[in-house]
Amino acid sequence: MAPIGVKARRAVAAVPFLFIAAWCFRNMDIDKLVVMQQPYADSGVIEWDGGRIPIIDHFHNVDFFDQVWRGTMATFSPSTFGYDSVAWWQMFSFLIDLGPVYAIWILESRRAGSAYTPAFLPTLFTFAGQLLGLGSVAPVFYFLSFAFGPTASDLARTSARGRKIGHQESGLLLLIVLAFHTCEVFAMFLAPNLATRHYWTWAWQLAPVWIGISNFLLSRVASPLLPKSGVLTSPKTVLAVLGLVSAGVWIYTLSFSPFSLSTIFIPLAEAQSEYVPHVRKALQTDHLAVFSSSFLWLTYSFLDLSSAGLLSTNWVLNVALVSIVAAIAGPGAAFIFGWYIRERALSSVEN
Q1: 134 with 286: CB under 8 angstroms?
Q2: Closest by alpha carbon to 239, among 314, 152, 169?
Q3: Which of 56, 102, 308, 347 is in Cβ range 3.0-4.6 Å of 153 for a Cys bridge?
Q4: Domain count, the chain
Q5: Closest listed residue to residue 81, CA positions, set 182, 185, 197
Q6: Is the pLDDT at 336 greater than 70, yes or no?
Q7: How far apart are CA 333 and CA 145, in angstroms?
């Protein structure tokens, strides 16, 4: 592993991640959200012009979870119930794109070189993101992973087995992410009955935890039974399917949304005093911080690979393609594509 001096220099270089986290935390203003959603939590009813849904009591039957996410149901309601149509388009796209992020974090944690580094604990960070906003947490995760995880040179010196993510590590991940995340998000936004959307909004709050726990337990139980190679258990298949889902939602947004992309995804700079506009701004900020930090991490990773001599001469062209994929297929698919370029570079090293 890299010496202390190298880690310190990498930590200094990675400070922009912390700026993103601070910007997101400030602009989301969680304290303001809590104050604004408290009347809904106290009354037990989410009401808006034209609708009324009672908040489910004791959904998890764990008092901490039931209390902390009771008000959150009101925060999600403008988007999931669709009474803020801009928020519906933004949050549907955002949450679908989190599937690739969760999958890549899990895959990175299973790399031998990630053992006992911050990247080894993705579920801890995704759970914190459910409480504080993933846009405030993801940049910290990337900062710690880059500063204190293995460098590209460290990985190049390990065996191929230590660098690559094997089929045993990803064999069940696709089904897990689809079951505990993607399908739940579709139900949150597309179920014809609003009470059903409300139910799945509750269920989704613990999705990152169930993904992490299920992958940890099932991969150990099923690992001896999974083939060491094969299309269905390949990390490429996991990410290809999740990327296609993300791209499909992005293309649907481009094709049918009545709003411009800037209206959907860019938060207003000024403070919002009303509840629905502030919720929209907070969740747009969350979205922007998650993917700006994710692409910044890819950029740092490419520079790291280049400095270690692990990227071919056409790597700049490949990296430029990431922005083209983002425009055509959206940030979730582009993040997958960028990570795939990184994996190919690591896999090409010969020891």
Answers
A1: yes
A2: 169
A3: 308
A4: 1
A5: 197
A6: yes
A7: 22
Convert the pLDDT of each residue in 31-46 to its tens digit: 999 999 999 999 999 9
Q: How many CA atoms lie within 13 A of 142 on its CB side?
A: 30
pTM of the model: 0.93
- Length of the chain equals 351
* CA neighbor of 23 nearest in space, from 335, 275, 276, 292: 292
Strands 51-54, 45-48: pairing is antiparallel
Q: Fill in the amino acid letter for 194.
A: L
The residue type at 178: L
Joined tokens for residue 80: 């999931």
With residue 321 as reference, give the H or E element that holds it: helix 315-329
Cα separation, 289 vs 269, in Å, equals 14
Residues 12-25 have pLDDT tens digits of 999 999 999 999 99
Q: Is 201 exposed, middle or buried (0-12, 13-18, 19+ CB in 10 A)?
A: buried
User: Token digits for 56?
Assistant: 């489910």
SS (H, E, C) 221-253: HHHHHCCCCCCCCCHHHHHHHHHHHHHHHHHHH
Q: Scanning the structure block, which residue is given the tokens 């089929």?
A: 167
Please check whether residue 94 is in contact with residue 332, taking contact to mean a CB–CB distance below 8 angstroms: no
96 to 91, 157, 221, 244, 294: CA distances (angstroms): 8, 36, 28, 11, 15
Which amino acid is it at 160? A
How many whole angstroms separate alpha carbon 232 and alpha carbon 236? 9
Give the mean pLDDT of the chain.
90
Task: Determine the Cα–Cα distance for residues 97 and 69; give it in Å rounded to an integer.
Answer: 22
| Cα distance between residue 55 and residue 38, in whole Å | 12
CA 60 to chain centre: 23
Burial of 350 (0-12, 13-18, 19+ CB in 10 A): exposed
